[in-house]
Design brief:
homodimer, DNA-binding, NUDIX_hydrolase-like_dom_sf (chains A, B), hydrolase (chains A, B), 9 strands, WH-like_DNA-bd_sf (chains A, B), Arc Repressor Mutant, subunit A, alpha+beta, 7-stranded mixed sheet, elongated, 6 helices, Nucleoside Triphosphate Pyrophosphohydrolase, two-stranded antiparallel ribbon
DNA sequence: CCAAAAGTGTTCTCTCTACACCCATGG
DNA sequence: CCATGGGTGTAGAGAGAACACTTTTGG
């Protein structure tokens, strides 16, 4: 921090942090990565991973660094986008703390246990957290809520759903992402048409994967398209 | 700021500001409210109105306060939403400054001249600013760019377009908002059907307004609906 | 053969689009 | 009467919803 800045503004400074909402699908449930806080405030409570932004990095770089430090996940392979800023006075008992929340979406990833900073990181089902919001430290329940709504909306207008699937994936895998996050079942045949007719959403690998039961499914990879047009609107929002 | 916080984090603190992108339509052009900066850095340059967030207010309250102080506009009657956080190192020569940008949409408003803080506030056409981005201080050209794209998207999925029209307004007025911001002309009859069939978008007042030329138009007010479903997709995005 | 999931086809409906056409006003 | 913008009607194309039906595997 530049000395001139400190002098000119006196004590009107804030602590700025980044928090990460890292979502994935595990065993048919939307799941978020949490850490157990090791320091006050909220020591011992569950919280979103995050930390202070350094003065020589962008907000996005800070998010990637915290992701690596706290969870040992390489974020460059995840979908990462800014969710918003949270700065209500009183959201942190220490005083004014503004946090920039980031949304990270990825396939089910193993979280290393033991040895590292990430030792205390674990996956938790989103549904339970939203049902009892006081589980989470700070205003993280609200951040999580906003993140989920953002994801549901992103599924409608973009191809990010594929970010949840480890490659290669079947159209059934992809459909499960929508079904879990939207909380409703979709017609498999209409879903197939929608996805395969959206240019650049998925790419056929030519390979197949035998299923636990039923006919083997063709395997796909993520395509180059990022936006869905026309969009894939949630049924029942009308 | 709590003393504990200052001690615990040392100098890793940032200045947090809010910046406002206040958009309106004036004479058929998208227009943004700017101020001439009265202090370094960028003294004398055009910039988005904004300022420091106080420690006892929310980010949104800070945005409303700055709006009032710098432009004398009562923001409670505008559409106000958070756009995002901008915090690249180097965006402010004084050091690390994180700004939370807010988007404000409203009808063409008179800006008071003289006497107040708002004396140096004025409307500027957006097109010229985007064509020569170095006109604006800091990274405000990028913020403005993001704001415009956000607005164009909001027009598709929400009823905010009506926020640009002083009440009561005609469907021609409303259509102009779309045409100006999307940069293309729309079929008037299809537009009418779309709007009047979207429940709660506009409310018929029963009154009429004589036009400069042609048949008088029915006057409407904003309806209670905030979301458009089905959305009103931009033509040609496909 | 049966269950289950993949994948195809069909029909109905709704929306968007384009464009023709009528209405009401000022000049 | 004419130009102009408001407002209505209509035919065609395309997308989505619902659902019947076929295919391909494991058990």
């Amino acid at each position: 921090m530049d000395d001139r800045l400190k002098r000119s503004v006196g004590v009107e400074l804030s602590l700025v942090t980044v928090d990460l909402v890292i979502l994935t699908i595990r065993e048919g449930e939307a799941t978020v990565l949490l850490v157990e806080r090791g320091a006050e405030p909220f020591k011992g409570r569950a919280a979103l991973p995050g930390g202070r932004v350094r003065s020589d990095e962008t907000l996005g770089e800070g998010a990637l660094r915290e992701l690596r430090e706290e969870t040992d996940i390489d974020g460059t392979r995840l979908h990462l986008e800014q969710l918003g800023a949270y700065g209500d006075p009183g959201r942190d008992p220490r005083g004014r703390v503004v946090t920039i929340a980031y949304l990270a979406l990825g396939p089910d990833l193993p979280v290393p246990k033991g040895g590292t900073d990430a030792a205390h990181a674990y996956w938790a089902p989103v549904a339970e957290l939203l049902a009892s919001p006081d589980t989470l430290a700070f205003d993280h329940a609200r951040v999580l809520d906003d993140a989920l709504e953002r994801v549901r909306e992103r599924l409608e207008y973009t191809t990010v759903a594929a970010a949840f699937c480890p490659e290669p994936f079947t159209l059934g895998d992809l459909r499960e992402v929508y079904e879990v996050l939207w909380g409703r079942s979709l017609d498999a045949s209409n879903f197939r048409r929608k996805v395969t007719r959206s240019e650049g959403f998925v790419v056929d690998t030519g390979e197949q994967r035998p299923q636990a039961t039923g006919r083997p499914a063709v395997l796909y990879r993520r395509g180059p398209a990022r936006l869905l047009s026309p969009p894939f609107l949630r049924p029942g929002t009308v």
